[in-house]
Amino acid sequence: MNAEVTAIKTAAETALAQAFSQARSRLPGKGAIVAQRDAAFDVFAKSGLPHRRVEEWKYTDLRALMRDAKPLASPPDAAAKARAKTAGALVGELEARRLVFVDGSFVAELSDTAKLESGLTVGSLADALAESDPALATHLGKLAPGSDVAVALNTALMGDGAVIRIAAGSTIERPLHLVFVTSEKPTASFVRSLVVVEPGARVMLIESHEGPSGSDYQVNAALELFVGDRAHVDHVKIITEGADALHVSTLAAAIGAKARFNAFTFTAGGAVVRNQLFLRFDGEDTVAGIRGATLIKGNQHADTTLVVNHAARGCQSREMFKAVLDDEAHSVFQGRIIVRQAAQKTDAKMMTKALLLSERAEADSKPELEIFADDVQCGHGSTAGALDDELKFYLMARGIPAAEAEALLIQAFLGEAIEGIEHAGLREILMESVAAWLKARGSA
Amino acid sequence: MALLEIKNLHVEIDGKEILKGLDLTVNAGEVHAIMGPNGSGKSTLAYVLAGKDGYEPTSGEVCFDGKNLFEMKPDERAAAGLFLAFQYPLEIPGVATMTFLRTALNAQRKKRGEAELSTPQFLKTVRDTAAKLSIDQEMLRRAVNVGFSGGEKKRNEVLQMALLEPRLAILDETDSGLDIDALKIAADGVNRLHGPNRSFIVITHYQRLLNYIVPDVVHVLSAGRIVKTGGKELAHELEARGYVEYQEEVLA
């Protein structure tokens, strides 16, 4: 008995196939790009949407969670652009260069591309695809795992995104903020970005995703990030999608030698969120901090799936992911650290902690270490539990009301991860968002 | 009127009766010592008064400043002027000491309808009070009690007490784990706060602390009841003879 059971296609799978066949001829790019799209679509066509029997998607059964596939978003009209003006307000206080994408399309008039610092090049993926930019042949699809169905769908259907290059040795003082906003209609957008940070360059990249509640739109975003030797890159992703949105995003990065790399994901929005990080250390002696904070309630589902691949000697990585769950929310953390044989003297520590504010909330955690080298320091830890009543009593015994005591403890819990962000302004902004979330929870 | 009046208090924990009809009256400005052997119910009394979950009375009454204490949540008791110095102060990673002190002070002031302290006012008050307790500024910058020695934790309790200015402070074995110098510093802190409008209940196993914080009344707590009440000389008797006779009395 080894007959392949071909599952009946779901409505979403059928709709995705239709969307691809209809859009194939008008999606940007020619020649090799078309072949790349076709090959990627084949990956999806063969396996369908990932479900719970696919180990990597065990806790996020996309086949069940994605009831339908929305039509591909069209370029935003004037009204959609007008509504998008306030997008990215969460980090508005931060003086950043904004590149705004509405419904998956780059909107030049909302973006700030004037007076680019020397060494900084920005453009849109749609343009790069249309112009057959040679950078695409060398970089596009080189980092994001083609076998991952979410990535495959992104490659097949990518419409636009950012293409950024930081020239060797350049320090870009102003953070770059990629603002992805869905305007209103329940559409699907597939954005793909490419960021190349050349050796010795320094940049901070913020990526935010948002949209209205009440619209069950779908976002599939992928970013491939090349970090050169001795470069210093901070990547912060803020997911505050509308309450009914389905969001799948992927960060795939390759990091060179003696670099500094920090990644942080803040997840507070969306009905279903899958945040994937595929990181590879290709050069020696790099130091990296990979962290995240998730705050979910109601029926929200948020999955963080992390693969850290230590492929070179002497790199240090610290992984810390924290989740706060209320009501019937469900968080997932899958973290795998792979230490290749060449990666002697690796120092990697992964920690995940979930704080459950309700007995109906569920936190699943699957940490894995795969070690092929013999001289390494690797560890992982995982905890899940309720708020500490003893600590709460101590705070209350000092006159702090219950809700405020809980808020203090929750902020402290997430603070441990948020402290890892190097940018003080952004740290404060995220702590304020946590406070606002807690306040909304208290008044609900 | 008495500041605190406990009448026939019975408390069960996990189905076992720990306090078995305790009576105690503390008037404004008085210092009461409660002494007794291990397991006599001293810490239970402290937790019941502060309002810890799982320490609810099965019968009896406690009036604090004329109000039924059991109708108040722990934070309301604190704002009304009741303070418990914990026997084992807790470490709160991630919560800065200054944030903690300020949140507590302002929460109490708010509940009493008083204005919040301004930042400079608050900082000055904390620094001055900390200096008197030999708490250095570096400690205040750390998370609450994290990395503090036993003595530092106890001094931090006294610092909180000094800032919050309670009307009744319950010191639960504040002397345990302290060397003689730390004990003196803590006791000095308490004595500075002592006045006609502030009362203390000093819970201790040993007489030593009472050399520095001199009680007006000494009670012996044994098997959940106050079995003897006397003046400060009672503490010396206990030190000399131990608790044996009181334990026998209960058994008899």
As a percent range, the share of helical residues of chain B equals 25-40%
Structural class of chain B: alpha/beta
Q: What percent of residues of chain A are in strands?
A: 35-45%
Based on secondary structure, the structural category of chain A is alpha/beta
Radius of gyration of chain B: 18 Å
pLDDT average of chain B, as an integer?
91
The Rg value of chain A, from CA coordinates, equals 21 Å
Contiguous helical run count of chain A: 10
Q: How would you describe this structure to a colleague?
A:
- The complex is a heterodimer of chains A (444) and B (252).
- Chain A has 444 residues and is of the alpha/beta class.
- Helix content of chain A is 24%, strand content 36%.
- Chain A has 10 helices and 19 strands.
- The two termini of chain B are 36 Å apart.
- Chain B is built from 9 helices and 12 strands.
- Chain B is an alpha/beta fold.
- In chain B, helix 4 crosses helix 6 and helix 6 (150-164) packs parallel to helix 7.
- Chain B has a single domain, classed as Rossmann fold (3-Layer(aba) Sandwich).
- Chain B has helices at 42-50, 74-79, 97-111, 119-132, 137-141, 150-164, 180-193, 233-241, 244-251, and strands spanning 4-13, 16-26, 31-35, 57-64, 67-68, 82-85, 92-96, 143-144, 168-172, 199-204, 217-222, 225-230.
Brief overview:
Chain A has 444 residues and is an alpha/beta fold. Chain A has helices spanning 11-23, 32-47, 62-65, 78-83, 125-130, 134-139, 149-157, 389-396, 402-418, 424-443; strands at 97-102, 105-106, 120-124, 162-166, 176-181, 188-197, 202-210, 218-227, 232-240, 246-255, 260-267, 272-281, 287-296, 301-310, 316-325, 330-339, 347-356, 362-371, 377-385.
